Each structure stands twice: as C-alpha cells, then as structure tokens.
Amino acid sequence: MPRLDAKTLIITGGASGIGAATCRLAAAAGATVVVADLATQADHARQVVADSGRHAVFMPLDVTVEADWEQLVDDTVARFGRLDGLLNGAGIGMAQDIESCSLDDFHRVYRVNGLGVFLGCKHAVRVMRASGGGSIVNISSVLGLRGTAGTPAYAASKGAVRLLTKNVAVHCARHGYNIRCNSVHPGYIETPMIASRLTRSVDNMTGRQHLENLHPMGRLGQPEEIARLVLFLLSDESSFSTGAEFVADGGLTA
Q1: Domains of the chain
Q2: Lesser CB count within 10 Å: N end or C end of the chain?
Q3: CA atoms within a 13 Å half-sphere pointing along the CA-CB vector of 247
Q4: Backbone angles phi and psi of 14, in degrees to 5
C-alpha cells in the first residue's frame, strides 16, 4: 500500500462506501484525514474517524454549497498547515430513464455529482497552489465512459466529471502548479448506493445476480478495492499520472 506519511487529505462522502474505505486505508498509510460528509451523516462519519485512529477528524460539508467548501479547506489548512490531497467521493444515484426523469431530479443528481466535484476542484487548487501542490482524485463511473439506458442524470454527471478532471489537470500542468487530477471509474461496487438494487427482481433473477453478470469477473467490486487505487493516485507513486482515467470494473467495459 502506498505510504502517505505527512500528507493531509480531504475525503468527501467519507461516512460510507468508497469514501469510508479510503479514509480508513489512508489513515493506516500515515495520512491525516478529514472525513467530510453531510451533518446528517455525523454518526457514521464519527465511526469512520474512530476506526481510522487519532489522525482523522470529521468536518461537515454539503458539497453543493460553495461557502461550505471555502470553510472546509480553510479550516483544514488552518488546523493542519496544508492540503495535499482531495478525493471527491460524494455522490448520489438515481435509476430513471429519459422519459421519467424530471428536471428537478436531474438537477439534484447533477448538483451533487457534477457541481460538487467542480467546487471541490476549484477550492482544492486554490489552497494546494499555496502549499506546493497536491493530487485530486474524482470518482466518476463506468457510466461516464459507456452508454446505458435508465440513468440519464447519473451518466451525464459522471461524464461531466471525466472531462472536468482533464480540464483541471491540463490547467494545473500548464501553469506549473504541481497539482495532478485524475478520475476513477468503478464498476458496480457493493456500497449503500446500490443496496436497494440487489434484492429487486430483474429478468427472472435477483438484482445482485443481474449486476454480477455484467462483470466478466462475475462479482461486484468491494469499496476497499477502489480505495487502494485512490491511495495510489493520492500518493507520490503516481507522480507522472494526470488527466487520466483509471478503470476498476471487473472487466465490464471490456
């Protein structure tokens, strides 16, 4: 596992799923971790902090509110002296096709998954420039790479994350900021986001069987498997990687 000694990281969506797994592994690898999530998720976030040890703290964040981002990054730098890495992991999903997805639903998904990542990148770059650089990792999805029916809002938001990542990466590289930005594209990962889909019936099989069958490896991914990839990208071991797409999907896109 990559070492992250002396690095300070912000991980959004840190109360559950991929975010929580990344918090725990990052703390074990030596990082100071800010577990950022909604105030309503405070109990779950504090459990992640307890699991992560003395180098983790919870700070509330609504990723759709710019003032929250300003407060979070400024408080992080004031408390720990610098910001070295950001995982934009907060996200929501919605399974509705193009005919049934309302404008309000589209906006709700896009605000979290798209706008939230934009704001995170914007304010991370602001403080990372001052502290000598860093690494930003944005969680996109295989649905940001390939077409599917039934998830227009989610797919549009994750496709936006993919290209926003490249824009941030090139901007920072061209300006010599020493800030890298990469996107991670998971397949279906066994997290609370897809829990309701696992038990419903699809084509005479359980939702779990249906999703497992989409992956040539024949199973769902685990949050820790994505977290380990994220840690590589947050570490100095990925120092020549920026603007890239890292796919971890059990062969789904292949």
Answers
A1: 8-248 (3.40.50.720)
A2: C
A3: 13
A4: -75, -5
Which residue is catalytic, options 110, 154, 177, 188? 154
Enumerate residues 6+ apart whose C-beta is below 8 A from 119.
63, 64, 66, 69
By three-state DSSP, how is residue 230 classified? Answer: helix
Instruction: Please compute, for residue 59, the number of CA atoms within 13 A of its CA located in the half-sphere on the CB side.
Output: 21
Q: What is the pLDDT along the chain (254 residues), one digit of tens a residue?
A: 678 999 999 999 999 999 999 999 999 999 999 999 999 999 999 999 999 988 899 999 999 999 999 999 999 999 999 999 999 999 998 888 899 999 999 999 999 999 999 999 999 999 999 989 999 999 999 999 988 867 899 999 999 999 999 999 999 999 999 999 999 999 999 988 877 777 777 777 888 888 889 899 999 999 999 999 999 999 999 999 999 999 999 999 99
- Which residue is listed with tokens 């005479």? 204
Element (H, E) at 151: none
